[in-house]
Specification:
The complex is a heterotrimer of chains A (304), B (439) and C (364).
Chain A (H helix, E strand, L loop, with lengths): L1 H31 L6 H21 L5 H28 L8 H22 L4 E2 L7 E7 L2 E6 H23 L1 H11 L1 H6 L4 H27 L1 E2 L3 H16 L4 H21 L5 H15 L14
Antiparallel strand pairs in A: 1-4, 2-3
Helix pairs in contact in A: 1-5, 1-8, 1-9, 1-10, 2-3, 2-4, 2-8, 2-9, 3-8, 5-6, 5-8, 6-8, 9-10, 10-11
Chain B lengths: L12 H24 E5 L4 E5 L1 H35 L6 H26 L4 H26 L8 H18 L3 H20 L7 H21 L1 H4 L5 E2 L22 H4 L6 H28 L1 H11 L1 H6 L4 H27 L1 E2 L6 H14 L4 H17 L7 H15 L16 H7 L3
Antiparallel strand pairs in B: 1-2, 3-4
Helix pairs in contact in B: 1-2, 4-10, 4-13, 4-14, 4-15, 5-6, 5-7, 5-13, 6-13, 10-11, 10-13, 11-13, 14-15, 15-16
Chain C lengths: L1 H16 L5 E8 L6 H20 L7 E8 L4 H13 L4 E3 L4 H13 L4 E3 L5 H4 L5 E3 L4 H15 L5 E5 L3 H16 L6 E4 L8 H9 L4 E5 L2 H13 L5 E4 L7 H6 L6 E5 L10 H9 L8 H18 L4 H10 L2 E3 L2 E3 L13 E6 L2 E4 L2
Parallel strand pairs in C: 1-2, 1-3, 3-4, 4-5, 6-7, 6-8, 8-9, 9-10
Antiparallel strand pairs in C: 10-13, 11-12, 13-14
Helix pairs in contact in C: 2-12, 3-4, 6-7, 12-13
The chains are: A mainly alpha (304), B mainly alpha (439), C alpha/beta (364).
Chain lengths: 304, 439, 364
């Protein structure tokens, strides 16, 4: 029982991170209907920025952890959203209105490009930082097992929840949210009604990237080790999460992320760890067979 | 597609400078975290190192590059505009292009046949050409699924793996020959295609993409973990090479066998086998091409294209979309399986590492970059995507960087693919003319 | 930096002005880029130094050696492509590749082209296929696993030992051998698991280890994952000792795992830096600001092997060279090298090391 609880905590932490990245996929998909394959690599770039920031802070002897975290978050979000903006501008905007597959290929190219840029400019070696947040709370002590939740795990889960709430509020209640939703529905009509479509799409990309940056900082804090290859796996998992939850739906992305995190950790905990990705994809197939638009996705209306 | 612009607003020099300045600023922001700053290992921990000189160069290049690019683009646009206004854009340009492509196709075929004769001493060229042909074949196979039937498949590598492993196992465990195993492996791959296709018939677009991606991963993970079956991560080695009507290409043939060199009274040279393999894949690829182009003219091929254009209309016309989709998956998978068999036979060693997602992505990129549905486009794109990294070997670590950048640039430059005209195989009026023309 | 370049350029001009000696191309191949680039780097540094030294002695059979470098990024397909390039360059000797999964397919190409090769790949399959051109100057995974498994069984009696691998050809082979050796000594692994290399989250594994009260983990795989597992174990309050293979020589492990790296034991060939015969060469490397760790001296030794075999054979023809390598005994910086019929080196393979404050040394 204690063991299951510990695995639940592990799964939630992992799922929260997948969820944060998945939101980026889902928003982009919602607004321009393309899979942004480079999103995982944007996340990777943000993790590198975080490593640089933490190293700088360590050199400057900043000892206040909350202050350091805030600083790293802000800096990383700023630069990463610049990357999000640039990727959209260079690789996707010229392709708007062409076939559905063109931006997909361009995105795959972008992903390869970003990965190798980072490898070249930052080196192929793994980048470690000393542990930022250590320790945790012991939740439950049984004779042979102690359940504990690390402060960093707690931080990840709380940050994710707060961001989710803030984000949902923004999409439902602000002017930008309304514009964003109107572009999702019908870009031409939105443009006719005076919505600056280009700007809205750019902002969407930047927001997605900023959320990925939060995930990047969290990964750096939690695992402490970053390399140029982390974007690929995280990207695929997060993309799976977005589809599982119903691509285009924000709560869906979060739900999908959590589900995938939980499936992974429980499957690995009780069944065969080596087949956990098979389980993830298998469950995805099952869900999609029963609900072709994902768990919380709107069913596609077929228009003739 | 886009509206015709009749007025052309020329940029003033000041505007050009401001525009380039903005780009330089963006370059600066992007450059600071990755170029300007880096972390280096300083005895067990990291230290931040700065490279502001390099950053300055990067920003300057961005500024100058933008100026030149903008200038070039504006001129190109102005020229095109003048042409449009003069009304000289010939409509028969398309027909001409079509003819050029056909001529190019024959030329490429001639070159492909002659290549090993010209480079008979050069292992590297023949081997790289063989790789190109494997990708051409994969591209043509995937073209059936993506280009013709319009079903986005991100897990094509699964069928490639099924083909490769079935040949590897049939030959090493049961002693089957290449030519015996080829049809069986193809059939196996095709049944996997149906297996995958069946449960996901209802899915559309990107949902289909992620499920196929998952399918590819599942196959790979099973190959890695099911050691008793596939020898796991160690892969299968010592896979026999195809023989020339029973004649082996080895220096010391097995007892009772005769080697190719001995039979024809030639000196043994490893090149003989390489060249033979090259011709095998060439024949396989050409057969695929003929097969697919014939299919396109059959009802099933027409049905694929109809499905791609409008699924609902297809159903309204009473077409059985289930069978159409499944046949596309099966045939695409079969062709991928053939390519896999050849790959295993050529490498002599396969392991799950050869069947990762990146491989699917590259094959898909070949189809899309070439121009969906265009057979010649696939050849062109496959050649490009194999040769860019090979030429890039001189640039060592910049190799994959260039590869990624090239993919983005080609797509931005020609969003429809290199040979992008998507010509319906059947056109009202034109078809009537064609029949009159005596086809 | 610029001065060295200038000096190199001047030297090149100077060399070109001399009557040119005939040149003999030899090659190294390995992961010069990608995830394992640091190993490729070590190989390159070792080989470059060796060739400079050999040429300073007047080359081999009166001809100067030139070095060709191939990058396979540990990808089997690229390895074959590199091999074909090298055949075209008419190399007479190859040191490589590094990853077993690259060495195996590439060796077929070299075999056909009559090129002898010396490799440090440890997978048994490398020499088990009856190719007579392969010589392994390193031990094999089965020996390695045997040494590690026996050590664990002897030194950690009564503690629970888990065996984990990363599903790579190298990692799984090693982990299987360790488990076998432990069982032979009457100790059953408390847990047998596989993880996916390249992921970041191993908290599931760590929790499992913690539940089963595992104190020692034998791991088949690369150093990056070990660093992550150690960090996460520390966070979860689990005191874990790790036993790994030769890949743990990488100093990246120390940077990434921090002080926890001191809990890493691993098997590696007897440290060639400790050989008396290697002392002058080690000095030379250190003078050039290169620490001759990991594969550096192996690459150096591979070139020495070629030099001595070619001199003994009196030619660089494949048959003569191959025969000389198989029959001879060679005095190199990694000790005396001689080979058995399969091409495996005869000297005993492995000893157990431990990381200690950023350096590794024989485990007590």
């Amino acid at each position: 029982m204690a063991y299951a609880l510990q695995q639940l905590i592990n799964g939630l932490t992992l799922g929260a991170m997948y969820g944060l990245i998945a939101i980026g996929y889902t928003m982009v998909y919602g607004i321009i209907g393309m899979i942004n394959f480079a999103h995982g690599d944007i996340f990777m770039v943000s993790a590198f920025i975080a490593v640089t920031c933490f190293t700088l802070l360590a050199a400057a002897d900043v000892s206040s952890i909350p202050l350091a975290l805030m600083f790293v978050l802000v800096v990383s979000m700023f630069f990463t959203s610049a990357y999000g903006w640039a990727v959209e501008r260079v690789a996707y905007r010229p392709l708007r209105g062409s076939t559905r597959l063109a931006p997909l290929i361009s995105a795959i190219g972008m992903s390869i490009f970003l990965q190798n840029t980072v490898q070249l400019t930052q080196g192929a070696r793994v980048k470690p930082i000393p542990p930022v947040i250590e320790g945790g709370i012991e939740l439950w002590q049984t004779p042979d097992f102690t359940v504990q939740i690390g402060w960093s795990q707690l931080l990840i889960i709380v940050t994710t929840v707060v961001l989710m709430v803030a984000f949902t509020w923004m999409i439902t209640h602000t002017a930008f949210g309304r514009q964003q939703r109107s572009c999702e529905q019908d870009r031409t009509m939105a443009a006719l009604l005076g919505v600056n479509v280009d700007r809205t799409i750019s902002l969407t990309f930047m927001l997605g990237a900023a959320l990925a940056a939060v995930a990047g900082v969290m990964v750096t804090v939690y695992y402490g080790v970053v390399d140029f290859f982390i974007g690929f796996l995280a990207g695929i998992k997060a993309f799976t999460a977005a589809v599982l939850g119903g691509i285009g739906s924000l709560p869906g992305a979060m739900l999908g992320g959590l589900l995938i995190g939980l499936i992974e950790s429980f499957w690995a905990a009780y069944l065969w760890a080596e087949y956990k990705d098979v389980a993830t994809f298998g469950i995805l197939c099952l869900v999609l067979m029963l609900r072709p638009s994902g768990l919380l996705g709107r069913p596609e209306v077929e228009k003739v | 597609m886009s509206a015709v612009v009749f007025a052309h607003h020329a940029m003033t020099p000041a505007e050009r400078l401001r525009d380039a300045g903005w780009i330089a600023f963006v370059a600066l922001v992007l450059g600071i975290p990755l170029i300007g700053l880096t972390t280096v290992d300083a005895g067990g921990r990291l230290e931040v190192a700065t490279r502001f000189g390099l950053l300055a160069v990067f920003v300057a290049v961005a500024f100058a590059g933008r100026l030149v690019l903008r200038y070039g683009l504006d001129h190109a646009r102005a020229r095109r505009l003048r042409r449009v206004q003069a009304g000289t854009e010939a409509d028969d340009g398309r027909a001409l292009a079509q003819r050029v492509v056909t001529v190019l196709g024959w030329f490429a075929l001639g070159a492909a046949v002659a290549l090993p004769l010209v480079f008979s001493g050069n292992r590297y060229v023949v081997d790289t050409a063989t790789t190109v042909l494997i990708y051409v074949m994969l591209g043509w196979g995937l073209n059936v699924v993506v280009g013709l039937a319009g079903l986005l498949d991100l897990g094509y590598v699964a069928f490639y793996a099924v083909g490769a492993y079935s040949y590897a196992l049939l030959s090493t465990q049961y002693g089957w020959g290449f030519w015996q195993a080829l049809p069986v492996s193809g059939a196996l791959a095709a049944s996997f295609g149906i297996l995958l296709g069946y449960p996901i018939l209802r899915l559309r677009g990107d949902y289909l993409a992620i499920v196929t991606l998952g399918f590819g991963e599942i196959i790979r993970i099973i190959l890695v973990n099911w050691t008793e079956f596939s020898n796991g991560p160690n892969g299968i080695s010592s896979i026999p090479r195809p023989s020339f009507f029973g004649l082996e290409f080895s220096r010391r043939p097995a007892a009772g066998e005769q080697s190719f060199a001995a039979f024809f009274g030639l000196d043994y040279s490893p090149m003989q086998r390489l060249i033979f393999l090259y011709y095998v894949i060439l024949v396989l690829a050409l057969a695929t091409h003929v097969f697919v182009s014939r299919l396109r003219r059959l009802p099933v091929g027409r049905a694929w294209e109809a499905l791609r254009e409008d699924e609902i209309a297809c159903r309204a016309m009473g077409m059985n979309t289930t069978n159409i989709k499944l046949s596309a998956f099966a045939i695409g998978a079969m062709l991928g399986g053939f390519a896999g068999v050849f790959f295993a036979a050529r490498q002599g060693f396969i392991s799950p590492e050869s069947f990762v997602f990146t491989e699917s992505a590259i094959v898909l990129a070949i189809v899309v970059l070439g121009g969906m549905g265009s057979q010649m486009g696939v050849v062109l794109a496959a050649t490009l995507l194999v040769l860019i990294p090979e030429f890039g070997r001189n640039f060592a670590e910049y190799r994959m960087l260039l590869f990624g950048a090239a993919m983005v640039l080609i797509m931005v430059w020609k969003p429809g693919g290199l040979l992008s005209h998507r010509e319906p195989t059947l056109r009202l009026g034109a078809a009537a003319k064609a029949t009159e023309g005596g086809r | 930096m610029n001065k060295t370049l200038l000096a190199a350029a001047l030297a090149a001009v100077g060399l070109a002005a001399q009557p040119a000696l005939a040149e003999l191309p030899v090659a190294i191949a390995g992961p010069m880029s990608g995830q394992y680039a640091s190993a490729g780097d070590q190989i390159r540094k070792g080989a470059e130094m060796a060739i400079a030294d050999i040429n300073a002695r007047g080359g081999v059979l009166g001809e100067k050696l030139v070095l060709e470098v191939g990058d396979d990024a540990c990808d089997p397909k690229q390895a074959v492509s590199v091999a074909n390039t090298m055949v075209n360059k008419e190399i007479v000797f190859m040191h490589g590749h590094w990853c077993s999964s690259s060495t195996i397919p590439a060796s077929d190409v070299y075999y056909e082209a009559d090129i002898p090769m010396a490799t440090v790949s440890t997978n048994p399959q490398v020499t088990e296929r009856g190719l007579e051109n392969i010589f392994r100057i390193m031990g094999r995974d089965d020996q390695q696993g045997m040494v590690a498994g026996t050590y664990l069984a002897d030194h950690f009696k009564g503690k629970k030992i888990a065996v984990v691998d990363d599903k790579s050809a190298y990692g799984k082979g090693l982990a299987d051998e360790i488990a076998k050796a432990m069982t032979a000594r009457g100790i059953e692994p408390a847990l047998r698991e596989s993880i996916t290399a390249g992921e970041k989250d191993y908290s599931g594994l760590v929790t499992k280890l913690k539940r089963d009260g595992v104190e020692v983990m034998a791991y088949g795989g690369y150093h990056t994952e070990v660093a992550l597992i150690l960090r996460q174990a520390q966070q979860a309050g689990l005191d874990l000792t790790v036993m790994g293979g030769d890949t743990m020589t990488n100093s990246e492990l120390v940077t990434a795992a921090g002080p926890a790296a001191d809990k890493v034991l691993f098997t590696f060939s007897p440290d060639p830096r400790k050989n008396a015969s290697a002392a002058p060469v080690v000095e030379k490397f250190r003078a050039a600001k290169i620490e001759p760790e990991g594969y550096v001296l192996y690459a150096y030794a591979a070139m020495q092997l070629f030099e001595q075999a070619a001199t003994a054979a009196g030619s660089t023809d494949y048959d003569a060279l191959q025969k000389a390598m198989r029959e001879g005994s060679f005095d190199t910086v990694i000790g005396n090298l001689s080979f058995d019929a399969k091409g495996d080196q005869k000297a005993p393979g492995f000893v157990v090391y431990q990381w200690q404050g950023g350096q590794y040394d024989y485990a007590r």
